[in-house]
Amino acid sequence: SAVISQKPSRDICQRGTSLTIQCQVDSQVTMMFWYRQQPGQSLTLIATANQGSEATYESGFVIDKFPISRPNLTFSTLTVSNMSPEDSSIYLCSAGRAGTGTDTQYFGPGTRLTVL
Amino acid sequence: SQKIEQNSEALNIQEGKTATLTCNYTNYSPAYLQWYRQDPGRGPVFLLLIRENEKEKRKERLKVTFDTTLKQSLFHITASQPADSATYLCALHTGGFKTIFGAGTRLFVKA
Hints:
The complex is a heterodimer.
Chain A: E1 4-7, E2 10-13, E3 19-25, E4 31-37, E5 43-49, E6 56-57, E7 68-72, E8 75-80, E9 89-96, E10 106-107, E11 111-115
Parallel strand pairs in A: 2-11
Antiparallel strand pairs in A: 1-3, 3-8, 4-5, 4-9, 5-6, 7-8, 9-10, 9-11
Chain B: E1 3-6, E2 11-14, E3 19-26, E4 32-38, E5 45-51, E6 56-59, E7 62-67, E8 72-77, E9 86-95, E10 98-101, E11 105-110
Parallel strand pairs in B: 2-11
Antiparallel strand pairs in B: 1-3, 3-8, 4-5, 4-9, 6-7, 7-8, 9-10, 9-11
């Protein structure tokens, strides 16, 4: 398993500003992901964070809005840029290990973002 | 497109009873399916994985079934306890390292 921490745990931001969320894993992992979850909704995958290269974004999400970094095997950041109230959500980091035969993921506690 | 359906209505049961949650999916044949538990304010926690060639999987008081013909998985918690109250998410493996999550079913176990 893997223990994942996220910072900040929550934040209230003004429209038009940006927030960077950090994700730290306690052991080396192959895969790291960023999800968004609205209350009562399913998790929506934003992107896969690739070490040393550009993240792979899902349909509907773009790098200019959600730039992601992954400088090594245990750390990643997600920035929510030029925020609007529609970006209010819980952002979750997850990690997994490829080559284990399954895509079981371990999740961080999430960052609750409110945009005013 | 691939779709996962979980009962959006909360499930209320009495302590000691068996809780049964349903996950239905369409337009896909996953190699395996997973169940996660999510508590308020926390990220999901992996519980069980069942492969397409397995009919049933057990772990302590948890049991998962997987019917690829019906495209359905059932998740059972026997001898339920108030501490089992949480949201339970079904997740489908869709290839590579891609997973699609259902919206989850909220379970309340009353003492």
